[in-house]
Amino acid sequence: MKARVAALAGIAALGLLAFACTNETTVLPPSQELPGVTVSGSGSAFGEPDVAELSLGVEAEAAGVSEARSRAAEAMEAMLTALKDGGVADEDIQTTRFSVQPRFDYIDGRQELRGFVVTNIVIAKIREIDDTGGLIDSALEAGGDLARVDNLRFTIDDPSALEEQARQEAMAEARRKAETLAQAAGVELGPPRSISESGGPQPVPFELRSVPGAGELAATPIEVGELEVRVQVQVVYALEEE
Description:
disordered N terminus
């Protein structure tokens, strides 16, 4: 029994010696988290919109699909002609919705087919923004009682200059925050380690509803106002001991 114990002890000792003599070593990696401070900043720039995006079209109802589609097509063609005659280019008009849907009446708890509704909606970009009110009036008059306006908003075709201005302001604010925090903590602020950005132009909405007999009404007043371009940044700055 003693001899067996001694033999086992010798095998264990040899095993430990062999393990100690191997070339493989385990090295724990240093911490990947470096000292830093995360701050956010925001900046804004304002400019006058130079493009109006007008969503408009027609909605026609009739007993049959063919009649409803024909009425909608005639009114839509008249509205498109009014827009193009007013200076809107072909490439600035895009169809965004075309649908044919049944309409039902409920009589004595029963569903009865009343007819069909054809809807055709386009978005027109108006680049001569001062012409917006007149173009709306012309299009609504051309479309008659079938005309509808879904939405009108103003935007800037190329907001890059305003975005640059807002971006500079956002980064300056983030830097000021980081410097204040570093000074309060008794450390030196290092360079940025990461920067992320969000934001962009904020379209100016304008609520406009179509009204029957639009040609008999006064001209539609349109106030463009200003558009805000807002940029937000989140910056991670390195921190260094003084």
